[in-house]
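quick one: S-adenosyl-L-homocysteine bound model?
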Amino acid sequence: MKKTDIKSLFYEELEQRLAQMGEKPFRAKQVYGWLHEKMAVDFGQMSNLSLTLRQRLEEEFYLTVLEPVEVKISKIDGTRKYLFRLEDGNVIESVWMKYRHGCSVCVSSQVGCRMGCGFCASTIEGLERNLTPAEMLEQVYRIQALTGERVSHVVVMGSGEPFDNYDTVVAFLRLLSHELGLHISLRNVTVSTCGLVPGILRFAEEGLPVTLALSLHGPNDSVRKTLMPVANRYPLSEVLDACRKYFEKTGRRLTFEYSLIKGVNDQLSLARELAALVGPLHGHVNLIPVNPVEEREYACSGKKDVLAFQEILKKAGIAVTIRREMGRDIHGACGQLRRSFRKKQSRNDNGPEWEGKGG
Ligand code: SAH
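yep, here:
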């Protein structure tokens, strides 16, 4: 019999499975608590269950646990970037950031990505596979266990396109916010998309008070098309219509992400166009000085240009921030740590060297 991934089951599903095994309903509460609140790494730890039940769980289920293989700690701001190994040997990365308001984890939703954005390292080798809900949760659980600090905020802004792995991401959000688990408020969660219209529309109907971030990177289709292949599939007008619907349904203000690339999308005329575009949407604009990726030719806009770009938006009455460059010294942007790890792996026939392990 194929074993079931127990950490990906909803509470009700777990309850049902345990009932089928002849267990009383309160057992589901205990097991769920072990999995999602105490973040157990094996069934043996579940000390208030009988040995027989633990053995039966072992026979029917498996526990997804991520193995940290590398951690880099930023000397600038203490940001930590973790590289985790999955059961099948793939590696993914997650980032831990500490702010005044709490601790935030940036999680990946896929191994690699197939969206092909020109400035992003996650997409260089395409999509390897989707993550499971348990693999997404584990990024938060392991980091909370390793840092010993409660995670209060989660952003789905690591590698992968969340709406290209839709069901998993929604299951992840429900499990993450469940009262018998870490119980993280969905108001403290942001999901970032490159603009898959059907995903945005479906997400609006889920009844989840999550902040949606749209990766804009250009104020019109022609600029977006030079950077993001997805812009050929969904024109900006459709994407923004879907965003408007998201706001109407959820009441949550959107975030627009705009990575500034020297000479490509940082001209002041584009700032004015951006102001006109997003002004009526009452969203918040987050400017991200692009993190240069070795394989790509894009360079970061100069500081002065970034500030001038921001000023135009401010003057137009738009809420705009420049993303703090957290962890730039430790391969801050999506997919860069995994990419450097894979390059090291392919250079080293005798297996990888854990250079940098432990920070
Ligand atoms: N697939 C999702 C999540 C991606 S990561 C999306 O496209 O929104 C979160 C943000 O970082 C996105 O806006 C993405 O475009 C941006 N990003 C990726 N690589 C970057 C880089 N090297 N420099 C700056 N921003 C980058």
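The CA atoms of residues 223 and 287 lie 16 Å apart.
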